[in-house]
Amino acid sequence: MAYILQSNSLSSKDAAVELFRRPVTWFVSLFALWWILLGVFYAFPQIDLWAAKAFFRESGCALGSTDLRTCGYFPAAREPVLIFVRKFYFYVPIAVAMVIILLMIRNFQHHGATYDATRTRRYSVALLSSILGPYLLVNLILKTISGRPRPYETDLFGGTHAFASAGTLDGSCLSNCSFISGEAAGAGWLACLIVLLPPRLRVIFGPVILMLCLVSPYLRVAFGGHYLSDVTLGFLSSCVVYAAVAVYYETQKEKNRWSKTAL
């Protein structure tokens, strides 16, 4: 009886681990988390305002100014070192994508037993998610239709536009708007690439890579270029897209396996 209970316990544990490893589990969880966080930021816009104010420095308005805006600036946006770091991080996802393309081409040069189909699938997931996530979903769609002015563009932080909450889609911005952050989305995509590392290296390098990927979103808030919600949802959006693409490839893999084994 004890052996049976232990076997059932191990089976349940293995089943839980297997469920946790499946892309569909990650997709459903991350997708739900994205909407939950959006709801929180929408219901409590003061979270964005508190975070932005932490990096904003008020100053006197120009002599003769009659508007009611709060004058000031974001000091971090004037620091040459931080500006350089921000530009560096801007191009890192592009450089990494180029490396993945080269690795895929190298993998395609193998034939027969030396060809690694799993590696090709993983590279394909990474590249396709970079196109669908940071580029298509964020920069071409959400940043175009959101209408949300950036912090430094609003009258609360030295600009002229009215503040718009996350997810309202009715702000006064006309193009390249604040919701959501493209650079944070690129950083989120880079964080997803931790899965390309061998399992034994993920534990060692995963936390370091994740911390480095958080630098870019932090700078976007410190510069007044985005609100906390913009970078949080931007970062997470790439994780959602990455998981969705992984689900698609897993589904195709299962279909191919079934077609080869079915009578």
Short description:
The protein has nine helices and two strands. It has helices at 2-21, 23-43, 46-53, 80-108, 117-145, 182-192, 199-213, 215-222, 228-261, and strands at 57-58, 72-73.
Query: Can you give the mean pLDDT?
Result: 89
Q: Output the radius of gyration.
A: 23 Å
| Estimated share of beta-strand residues | under 5%
- Summed up, the domain count is 1
Helix proportion of residues, in percent?
55-70%
- Major pleated sheet: 2 strands, antiparallel
Explain the overall architecture.
The protein has 263 residues and is mainly α. The protein has one domain (26-59, 67-254). 67% of the residues lie in helices and 2% in strands. The chain is built from nine helices and two strands, in the order H-H-H-E-E-H-H-H-H-H-H. Strands 1-2 form a two-stranded antiparallel sheet. Helix 2 (23-43) packs antiparallel against helix 9 and helix 8 (215-222) runs antiparallel to helix 9 (228-261).
Strand and helix layout:
Elements: H1 2-21, H2 23-43, H3 46-53, E1 57-58, E2 72-73, H4 80-108, H5 117-145, H6 182-192, H7 199-213, H8 215-222, H9 228-261
Antiparallel strand pairs: 1-2
Helix pairs in contact: 2-9, 4-5, 4-6, 4-8, 5-6, 5-9, 6-7, 6-9, 8-9
Core attributes:
single chain; 263 residues; mainly alpha; two-stranded antiparallel sheet; 9 helices; 2% strand; elongated; disordered N terminus; Membrane-associated phospholipid phosphatase; transmembrane helix; transmembrane
